[in-house]
């Protein structure tokens, strides 16, 4: 579904991605893990058209998307849930959800809002509250629901567990598991590698702008040497 | 304020504005109200780009100048009917702003403010030095009022012109209201709150920002045309950076992003300096001090403050919420 080949990108004169290659097949959950500053978020930005691609290619459903503007990529069916629980703080929960469906033209948006509120009951309880007044965990749920409102073919989550209490992290994990169970293809970026290994089918490990290791979650989990060297156990 | 009371308050204000020239006998005050209504139109425009979209533009008076000179030159140099010149001026200003907005909206935040500030200066310098067209600092005299309407309404009469300006101000306020309630208005607010997220939701952000800027220019152009044909004399002085700052102030003082905040703000920036004439040479110092204090005490403008005061009063008097 998504194929990244020899991707190079950077900021100013500094190149931060030195030829990244990976793929996400339909129905899969793939995780990119690695330390701070290893290039995971930059990869996502390059896929979403927010960071110019300097070399290599990004292909989505057989078509190149690495020269397209960000909003066109959204229309193609890639939704991004940026890091840091991003919501529109002065809009109500329902308004936030509605804007998530911005790229859609169909008439089923209202029923999708109800479906999201079934998935996240807290969003029904707080429907008319400003998103800025929700707690961190609730905002993360809203951010995830908003991304799903676009009915994406591929849903990208950037550090969904960042800065949340352990109990809420477990909740977020359960949510992503449910989304995966619905058959939505997901690409997950996480520093919390234990969580990523539980959720993902396959994992790519980043180190300073390169992918140094790849395999199924089970393979990486069961290899004690890898766990010691890269996963901090 | 109770929701149901808002339309009533608006109607009351409108009735007051319609009756004003009849019971205010001092012509000077009628003129001030008229100017404040022209400023209201300009402030509405500023509110679209600054209040709704979150991009502070410092060129509203410059754009007003474009509208004023466009209408004046069309009617004087090309001999167009004044009505036609006034009607086309906002469109010329809007078109003009497309060429400015396109490059300047590529930058964000403070950079946008600086680019528009420079643009206002460019307009000012061109108006000053392109003397064969604009007559420079000396300005253009004897700008005509619009032709009589159906041979009945004579706009050389100040009160008739007052009602013309009132009509345009009401129409522009209604347009702003429609824009705020529309999906475009919602998208503009989304851009103000979180531009990156809006773009991640699939919004072609730059198109909306350009729209907001061009719409604000349209309002400025309308205000400029109304101003030129009322005063009958224009020179570049009126359209400098200082007046653009007044437009920004009107929005901040009144209530950023609200519908009636800019109305309140426009009246404040027209009336306050006039009233402060009693302070003579300390006028600007007192004005500046008032603005600083107002900004500290009412960071979101006067309108939200009034709303809260109303709530508190209603609670104390025991009205149900």
Short description:
The complex is a heterodimer of chains A (233) and B (321). Chain A is built from ten helices and ten strands.
Can you walk me through this structure?
- The complex is a heterodimer of chains A (233) and B (321).
- Chain A has 233 residues and is α/β, with parallel strands linked by helices.
- Chain A has a single domain, classed as P-loop containing nucleotide triphosphate hydrolases (Rossmann fold, 3-Layer(aba) Sandwich), CATH 3.40.50.300.
- Chain A has helices at 40-47, 70-76, 93-100, 109-119, 121-125, 136-148, 166-181, 193-199, 217-222, 224-230, and strands at residues 2-11, 14-24, 29-34, 55-60, 63-64, 78-81, 154-158, 185-190, 202-207, 210-216.
- In chain A, the strands form 2 sheets. In chain A, strands 6-7-8-3-9-10 form a 6-stranded mixed beta sheet, with helices on both faces. A 4-stranded antiparallel beta sheet of chain A has the order 2-1-4-5, covered by helices on one side.
- Chain A starts with a strand and ends with a helix.
- The mean pLDDT of chain A is 86.
- Chain B has a single domain (5-316), classed as ABC transporter involved in vitamin B12 uptake, BtuC.
- In chain B, 44% of the residues are buried.
- Chains A and B meet through helix 2 and helix 3 of A and helix 8 and helix 9 of B.
Distinctive features:
heterodimer; A: 233 residues; alpha/beta; Rossmann fold; 6-stranded mixed β-sheet; 4-stranded antiparallel β-sheet; 10 helices; 10 strands; globular; B: 321 residues; mainly alpha; ABC transporter involved in vitamin B12 uptake, BtuC
């Amino acid at each position: 579904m998504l194929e990244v080949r020899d991707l190079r990108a950077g900021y100013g004169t500094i190149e931060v991605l030195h030829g990244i290659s990976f793929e996400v097949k339909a129905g899969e959950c793939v995780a990119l893990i690695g330390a701070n500053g290893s290039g995971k978020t930059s990869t996502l930005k390059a896929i979403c058209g927010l960071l110019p691609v300097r070399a290599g290619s990004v292909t989505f459903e057989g078509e190149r998307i690495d020269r397209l503007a960000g909003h066109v990529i959204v229309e193609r069916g890639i939704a991004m849930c940026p890091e840091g629980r991003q919501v529109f703080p002065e809009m109500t929960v329902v308004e936030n959800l509605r804007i998530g469906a911005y790229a859609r033209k169909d008439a089923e948006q209202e029923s999708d809002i109800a479906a999201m509120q079934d998935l996240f009951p807290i969003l029904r309880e707080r429907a008319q509250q400003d998103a800025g007044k929700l707690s961190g965990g609730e905002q993360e749920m809203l951010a995830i629901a908003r991304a799903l409102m676009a009915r994406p073919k591929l849903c990208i989550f950037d550090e969904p567990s960042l800065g949340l209490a352990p109990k809420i992290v477990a909740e977020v994990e359960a949510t992503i598991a449910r989304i995966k169970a619905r058959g939505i293809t997901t690409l997950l970026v996480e520093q919390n590698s234990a969580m990523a290994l539980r959720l993902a089918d396959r994992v790519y490990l980043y180190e300073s702008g390169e992918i140094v290791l790849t395999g199924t979650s089970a393979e990486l989990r069961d290899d004690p040497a890898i766990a010691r060297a890269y996963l901090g156990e | 304020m109770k929701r149901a009371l808002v339309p009533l308050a608006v109607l009351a204000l409108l009735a007051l504005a319609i009756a004003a020239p009849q019971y205010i006998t001092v012509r000077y005050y009628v003129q001030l109200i008229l100017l404040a209504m022209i400023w209201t139109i300009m402030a509405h425009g500023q509110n679209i780009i600054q209040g709704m979209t979150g991009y502070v533009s410092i060129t509203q008076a410059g754009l007003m100048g474009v509208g004023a000179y466009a209408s004046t030159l069309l009617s004087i140099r090309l001999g167009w009917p004044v009505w036609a010149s006034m009607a086309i001026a906002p469109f010329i200003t809007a078109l003009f702003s497309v060429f400015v907005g396109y490059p300047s909206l590529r930058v964000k935040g403070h950079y946008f403010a600086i680019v528009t500030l420079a643009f206002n200066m460019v307009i000012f310098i061109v108006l000053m030095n392109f003397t064969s067209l604009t007559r420079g600092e000396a300005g253009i005299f004897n700008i005509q009022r619009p032709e009589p309407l159906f041979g009945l309404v004579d706009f050389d009469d100040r009160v008739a012109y007052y009602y013309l300006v009132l009509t345009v101000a009401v129409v522009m306020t209604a347009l702003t209201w429609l824009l705020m309630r529309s999906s475009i208005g919602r998208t503009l607010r989304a851009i103000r709150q979180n531009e990156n997220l809006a773009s991640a939701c699939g919004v072609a952000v730059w198109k909306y920002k350009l729209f907001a800027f061009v719409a604000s220019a349209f309002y400025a152009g309308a205000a400029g045309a109304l101003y030129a044909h009322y005063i009958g004399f224009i020179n570049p002085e009126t359209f400098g950076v200082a007046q653009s700052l007044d437009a920004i102030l009107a929005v901040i003082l009144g209530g950023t992003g609200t519908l009636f905040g800019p109305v309140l703000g426009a009246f404040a920036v027209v009336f306050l300096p006039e009233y402060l004439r009693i302070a003579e040479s300390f006028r600007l110092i007192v004005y500046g001090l008032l603005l600083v204090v107002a900004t500290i005490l009412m960071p979101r403008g006067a309108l939200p403050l009034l709303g809260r005061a109303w709530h508190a009063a209603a609670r104390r008097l025991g009205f149900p919420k």
